[in-house]
Predict the structure.
Amino acid sequence: MAATKPKASAPIPGKMSPHIWFYSFVLIIQYGMQPLISKRLTSREVIVTSSVLTCEVAKVVFAIILMAKDGSLKKLAKEWTLMGSLAACGLPATIYALQNILLQISYRNLDSLTLSMLNQTKIFFTALFTFIILRQRQSIQQIGALFLLIMAAVLLSIGEGSSKSSSSGDPEQILFYGIIPVLVASVLSGLASALCQWASQVKKHSAHLMTVEMSIVGSLCLLASTSKSPDGEAIRRHGFFYGWTPPTLIPVVTNALGGILVGLITSLAGGVTKGFVVVSALLVTAMLQFLFEGKSPTTYSLMALPLVISSVSIYQKYPYRLRNKEA
């Protein structure tokens, strides 16, 4: 009797190979540096939509180069189908576009501190939808590590927003146009991240191909919004590259490279790992602000540091172990 071929299994949450550690480390540095690079090299006159669209184009170019290098570009012409692409990437790309719209609504009606804290709940929703869609379980210790990470993210958000004034608008407007949209955006972020992980691990969609497809869909959604948005009006009035200088390309390129790494990490290690990377990057930002701008880390940032270290250590050390039934 021929031996049956074992099914390919998804990566065990908490188990990371050396190259995933490397990708995560590089992404932490990129995420941590990005705010400072953007602040120093991007003029206030640059239209946000033009920067975002250029970044998406750069991601597509980088992803295609990488696919050509690993040989997957040749297979693409034979295997790629529009329906397969829409099934794998259409829904998460649309969800991410809707999430960005909801966050823009919340930005106008919530102070940055409240918004940042509520937005950290996406880590929990990512773990929840990963379990629902992929049946990827977390151990009790990993669940505790996730809550430690959320606590660290909240402390970092308090440190970032403590010096900023809170909004004092109409309570109903704050609830319906501030709190609810950001919570829905967090749910959508968790769902989209789990769907991307499903597409890469179950449907075997390559990370680079997903980057190309989602960038294209996201760009089309953004282009459609320019017909009514203030940015669209600014582009029609001043031109697409209004306010750009040669250094403006640097943060665009680094952001695009970060997007490539996000796709790789989500594909290889899952959306929850990406959440750990993002929160860890906040600590790098605080450190770089101290080194280059003389801005001392807040007490909240110092309190968050051991929480991040502990959560990462616990999450890696205690993965969920399937209890095999005795024959």
